[in-house]
Structure formats: structure tokens, C-alpha cells
Amino acid sequence: MELIHGSPLDMTGRLDKEIRAYRLLDSQGVDFDRTDHPDQPATSMEVCASVDAILQVHICKNLFLCNRQKTSFYLLVMPGDKPFRTKELSHQLGVARLSFADAEHMEEYLDVTPGSVSVLGLANDRENHVQLVIDEDVLGEEMFACHPCVNTSSVRFRTADLLEKLLPAMGHTYISVHLEGDEGERQ
Q1: CB 55 within 8 A of CB 37
Q2: What pLDDT is stored for residue 59 in this prediction?
Q3: CA pair distance 147, 27, nearest whole angstrom
Q4: Which residue, 88, 131, 148, 155, could crosslink 34 as a Cys pair with Cβ 3.0–4.6 Å?
Q5: Are 74 and 66 in contact (CB under 8 A)?
């Protein structure tokens, strides 16, 4: 794996959803670096460690969640090393019960598959079915890393570009939450 600046010069063999992610980054003037890892899909936070080393930033944990009725959907972006507690997030969002959403809704709304969930998938959610939720620890980082809607490549760019350029271009806003990630301070 190597660090490469900007979009691939040759898009041959890349999926349309990945190409759309690169075009979004380019169209919004987002300066980014990427690494391709087709022989090592990043399907878990453990696998992401080698990708993190190349990008010199931590890829976030991206969780696709829904309420019990499957009428409200959320994309949670949080530090990869912080444990996720559904009760803690449910309380902050005022949602009685959260659980992991199914792959069918993930593909329908974000055009991504399990293991490839990314904030860049929100570009495919034109009807705003999914609410973005970001842990404040992520917002405090200078750089942000994610997949370009496939788990065989990863990109990094400024967190400010996510908030100031990409989210407005995708027509999405976010809710900031403070997740402790432990049993200590929860109510």
C-alpha cells in the first residue's frame, strides 16, 4: 500500500459508487490523499490498523443504525477505538431503542454494503432518509478518514472540508454527540 494524492488517473475496474465518491471530492475542491488495498479489504477495525498507518490518521467506526420500527435511520461516525453503547446514544438522540439496520436499507439509502459504510455514502441519500451523527471526538480531529463507498480503498481529508464542503454539497447536516464509550458516566 502507498499514499497517493487525489483521484485515480485510471478508473478502470472501479465501481460506479467509488467513482462518484472521487468525483464528489474533486467537484467540491477537497484536497485528499488515498490508499488502495484491494488485497486487504478493510472489513474490521483491526484490518484498518494497517490502512491507518499509511494514511497517518485513524479511520472512524461507521455504524448504520435504526429505531425499532425501522422508520428512522442514523449513520454514526465515532472513533474506531471507542466502544459503542446503544443505550448511551439512544438517550442522547431521544430514541427509545436503537439497533443495527439491515443491509437492504444500507444499500437502498447509501448504496454501500456492510464493511463499506462511509459518510460519503450520504451523497446517494438524496431524500435524506439517514441522519448523520458524529461523536465530538471526531469533530475535534484535524483530519478525517473513510472509505470512498468501497472497502478496498481509503481516503483522508480535512475534517473542516467534511463539515464545510461535503455535507452541504450532499444536502445533509449532522448531530454532534458526546459518547463516553464506557459504563461509567451513562445515565
Answers
A1: no
A2: 75
A3: 17
A4: 155
A5: yes
Considering the entire predicted model, what is its pTM? 0.90
Grid cell, residue 108, equals: 437502498
Number of separate helices (H) and strands (E) present in the chain: 7, 9
pLDDT tens track for 139-181 = 999 999 999 999 889 999 999 999 999 999 999 999 999 998 7
Nearest to 121 by CA among 95, 101, 96: 101
pLDDT in tens, 106-144: 999 999 998 889 999 999 999 999 999 999 999 999 999
CB proximity list for 127: less than 8 A, separation 6 or greater:
none
Q: What would the pLDDT profile of 44-98 be if each residue is shown by its tens digit?
A: 656 667 777 788 887 788 999 999 999 999 999 999 889 999 999 999 999 988 9
Q: The cell 464509550 sits on which residue?
A: 181
Q: Where are the beta strands (DSSP E) in the chain?
A: 4-5, 33-36, 61-67, 73-78, 98-100, 130-135, 143-146, 153-158, 174-177
CA atoms 152, 110, 133, 101: torsion sign: negative
